[in-house]
Amino acid sequence: MTIFRRRHAFPTLFLAVISGLFLCPEASASAASDSSWTARWIGPADAERPAGPAKNLWSCYRHSFSLAEKPASARARIAVDSKYWLWINGRLAVFEGGLKRGPNPRDTYYDTLDLAPWLQAGENQIAVLAWYWGRDGFSHKSSGQAGFLFELQAGPALVVSDASWKAIRHPAFGETGAPLPNYRLPEFNVHYDARLSPGDWLSAAFDDHAWPAAFELGAPPAAPWNALVPRPTPLWRDSGLIPFEGSPAYPFTTDDALVVARLPRNLTISPYFKIKAPAGLLIDIRTDNYKGGSEYNIRTEYVTTDGIQEFESPAYFNGHSVHYTFPPGVEILDLRYRETRYDTEFSGWFECDDPFLNRLWLKCRHTMNVNMRDAIQDPDRERAQWWGDVAILLGEMFYACDTRSHALIRKAILDLVNWRKPDGVLYSPVPAGSWDKELPGQMLSSIGEHGFWYYYRYTGDVATLATAYPAVRDYLALWQLGPDGLLVHRPGGWDWGDWGENIDRPVMDNALLYQALATAIQMARLTGHEADIRGYETKRASIAANYNRVLWRGTEYRSPGYTGKTDDRGHGLAALYGLATPDQWPALKKVFTTSFEASPYMEKYLIEALFRMGDTDAALARLKTRYQKMVESELTTLWEGWGIGSEGYGGGSYNHGWAGGPLTLLGEYVAGIAPTTPGFATYQVKPQLGSLRRVSAGLDTVKGRIAVAIERDNDSFRLRLESPPSTLATVALPLAATVTCNGGLVWPIADAKPVAGLVFAGADATHARFTVSPGAWEFSSR
C-alpha cells in the first residue's frame, strides 16, 4: 500500500473556476412562468422514439451556434433529471449542475447562470454530459424520464435545446457489480469502460455529424418534469483539480495494489488520475468512508484503454483519503482531486484560551461543510435532509458562514412545507421519493424555536415564515391533549425520539410541543393570523399547568409508567423551554452530572439549557466530557453517536451534522452574540465566559459583520466590539467599580460622562448594559 501523506497546505490549480456563475433570483419559492420558455425538453433517441424508462442512463448532447460578437453577459437556464456537466468550446463551465428533484413532489428545479466567460465571437460549441438516475431516494424524487432543457440568451441570439441538437447514450458508462450503494441513495456507482469511449467529444473540433438528432420531449411545463422552479441555492464552489501533496515524483509504479492519497481533512471530492496502461485493466476508486454509516455508499470503476489516459469521476465522494486500486501494469502519471462544496465563505470564527474548545469548534465547522450540498444533509449513507439535523445545523451556518448560506436554510424550510401530506402531516427527509414517515419530535423541533423561528430571528425574512405558517398551523392541529392535560402520544410513521436507551418520551414530547406552540403564537401574530392564537395559548396553558403536576417527582422528571434510568433529555428540554422553574434547577443540574443517555442530537439542547440557567462552567464541563473522544480523534469531523460504526448509533457515521451544536453555543452564549429583534436590527453581546480568560468571535449577518474580542484578568474585563451599520447593540458587562468606553467613564452612572452613540440601558445584580450605535467600541471595567 502506497500512502501519500498530507502537508499543511495545498496549492490550487484552477482548471475551471465556477464561483460567480450563479445568478440567484431573490424569489425562488414559486415556479417561473413556463410560457417564458422557448426551449424543448430533449433526450437521446432509440431509433425514432425517446430512450424509454431506464436507470443509470448517461447521455451526451452537442450543439453548435454562431455569435456575431462576444456577449457581455449570457443568461442560461438549464434543467435536468438528475445531474449535468457542461463544456463550452472545450472548456469546463459547470461541474455537476442541477439540484436533486424536487421543490415539491411534482416539479423540477432549473439552474440560472452566466455563460459569457466561455463564449466567443463566431462559432461556439456546447457539450453536455447528463446523468439520469431513474430511481427515488431519501433525497430525490425521480421524474421517470431522462430529459435535458437548455435556453441561452446571448445578446440578440437565442440558443435553445430542440431537435437540432445531437444526442447519444454515452457508450462507456455502465453498471458495476456488487457491492452497490445502499437503498437510501438515488445515485449509482460509476462504471466507465474507456475502450468504449466515443472519442474526444467534449472538444469544439469533434465531428458529431454521425450522431442522431435529439428527440424532443415537449415544452415546459411538459410532464413528467412539470413546472420549473428556479434553483434557490448557488452552483457549487469548485476548486479545480488539486494535486495530492506528499506523493512520490511522477511517474511511478507500485507493487502494492492500493494507493492511498490523503486529503487535508474530510472533504466532498471527485477523484482524478492520469495513467499509462494496457487495455482491459479494472481500477477501483473509493474513499476511506466508502462504508460510512455502516452502509455502502458510492464508488467508481474504470476499465482502461491502451496508452496514456486520464479520468475524473463525475460522482462526488467524501472522506479523509482517496483509495485507488491499480492492478499491475499501470504507470501512474498524476493523481488529483476536485473539491466541490456549497458556495459560501467560512467567515465566522471563534477562538479562546482553551485549545479543546478551539479544536472542537473547527471540527464542528468541518462537519457542517460536508453536510451542505443539494440540501442540508449527511454526505454518505443517506445524503438526506432530516429536519432534526437541520434544526441544529442551521445555527452552525449562521455563526460560521456568510449570508449565502441562508438560501440553503430557506430551501430546507420550503422543502418541508411543500412536501407536506394532504392531511397536514409534515415529514422528513424531503425531498424524497422513497420515504414518507413522520418523526413527530423532529417535526416539533423544526417548526419551533430552533427551526423556523431561529431562521426568522437571524434573517428577518417574514415572507418565508408567511409561506410556512399554514403548514405549521395544520400540523399543530394534529396534536391533541388528553384527560391529564398533556399531549396524547403521537407515534407518527417512526416513533423515534433519539438514539440510545432510557428515553422518557412524555417528558420530552410535551416540552417540544410546548415550545412549538410558543413559536406558533409569534408566527400567527407576525403573519396576520391572530384568530389562531387563542387555540395555541389554550394548549400551552394546559401543558404549563400539568407538566410538573404529572411528571415531576420532587428530584427529577419521570412519567407515569416509565421504569428506565433517569433520562437527561427531557430534563434539558424542560429547563430550556421554561417548564422547569428556577427552584427546580439545582435538581436538574444534579441529573446532568449523573445521567448521560442523550445522543449528540439531544446533547446540544441539554448543554444549551445549562447556559440558559447561567451555569457556564457546568455547561462547558459537560461539553468536554461528552466530546472528549471526538476532539482527541484524528478524524476531522464529528460523529453520529459517541462512537463510530458498531460503537455508535444508527450506523455510526463519522460526519454527522447534528453533533456540531457546540459551534452555535460557543458563539451564541460564550461570546454572547445573538439578535434581540429579527435580522439583527438590535442584538446583544452578553458573554458567558465561565473560567475562560480570552474569547474572540464574529459572524456575518444580514446587517454586516459583528466582531467581538474579550480579555479579562483578575482585576479587569475588556471588550472590543465592531458593530455594523443599521444596528443597535446592547453590551452587557459584569458589574465593576468603574466602566469606561472609548476612554470615557460610563459607570457608575452618577459619575458618567457623555459618550456619543452610547446610552446607558440599565443594570441588574450582575451586569451593566449599554446600547451603542454602529462603529468600533472598546469597554474596560475594573
Task: Give a concise summary.
With 782 residues, the protein is α+β, with helices and mostly antiparallel strands.
Structure description:
The protein is α+β, with helices and mostly antiparallel strands. It is 22% helix and 28% strand. The strands form 7 sheets. Strands 1, 14, 15, 18, 19, 20, 21, 22, 23 and 24 form a 10-stranded mixed β-sheet that branches. A 7-stranded antiparallel β-sheet has the order 25-28-29-30-36-32-33. α7 runs antiparallel to α8, α9 crosses α11 and α11 (600-612) runs antiparallel to α12.
Question: What characteristics describe this protein?
Answer:
single chain, about 775 residues, globular, 7-stranded antiparallel beta sheet, about 20% helix, alpha+beta
How far is the N terminus from the C terminus? 61 Å
Number of E-type strands: 36
Low-confidence stretches: 5-33
Helical fraction:
10-25%
Secondary-structure blueprint:
Layout: E1 2-4, E2 41-43, E3 45-46, E4 49-50, E5 57-67, E6 74-81, E7 83-88, E8 91-97, E9 108-114, E10 122-132, E11 147-154, E12 157-160, E13 166-169, E14 173-174, E15 190-193, E16 215-218, E17 228-230, E18 237-243, E19 258-277, E20 282-287, E21 300-303, E22 307-312, E23 317-325, E24 331-341, E25 349-352, H1 355-370, H2 387-400, H3 406-418, H4 440-446, H5 452-459, H6 462-476, H7 505-526, H8 533-551, H9 568-576, H10 585-594, H11 600-612, H12 616-632, H13 661-670, E26 673-675, E27 682-685, E28 694-701, E29 704-712, E30 717-723, E31 728-734, E32 739-741, E33 744-747, E34 758-763, E35 767-772, E36 775-781
Parallel strand pairs: 1-19, 9-17, 15-21, 27-31
Antiparallel strand pairs: 2-16, 3-4, 5-10, 5-13, 6-9, 6-11, 7-8, 7-10, 11-12, 14-15, 18-24, 19-22, 19-23, 19-24, 20-21, 20-23, 25-28, 26-27, 28-29, 29-30, 30-36, 31-35, 32-33, 32-36, 34-35
Helix pairs in contact: 1-12, 1-13, 2-3, 2-4, 2-5, 2-13, 3-6, 6-7, 7-8, 7-9, 9-10, 9-11, 11-12, 11-13
